[in-house]
Write a structure and sequence with these properties.
By secondary structure, the chain is of the alpha+beta class. The protein has one domain (about 10-84). About 50% of the residues lie in helices and about 15% in strands. The radius of gyration is 17 Å and the shape is elongated.
Length: about 80
């Protein structure tokens, strides 16, 4: 019985997957969940294209208010939300 598995990734297929509507929706939902965990003042960016595989889908969560920026600077609320 073989003990090694060989996986060959097809670049075009991976690129298609990373740019798909389904992955975009999953990323958006994850970003919205993270922003909600972080609390008031944190917002999700609109969809943008990261520079991997010719533009994979990406979203960002940022502190949009002074209070949110202060909460991240002093208490790391967004950072903690990522790792909780």
């Amino acid at each position: 019985m073989p003990t090694k598995v060989r996986i060959e990734l097809l670049s075009d297929g991976i690129r298609e997957l990373l740019c798909s509507r389904e992955v975009s929706e999953a990323c958006r939902q994850a970003a919205e969940s993270l922003a909600a965990k972080a609390g008031d003042g944190f917002e999700v960016s609109s969809e943008w294209r990261a520079n991997f595989g010719q533009g994979r889908v990406a979203y960002s969560v940022t502190a949009a208010t002074y209070e949110a920026k202060l909460a991240e600077a002093e208490d790391k609320v967004l950072t903690r939300a990522v790792f909780s």
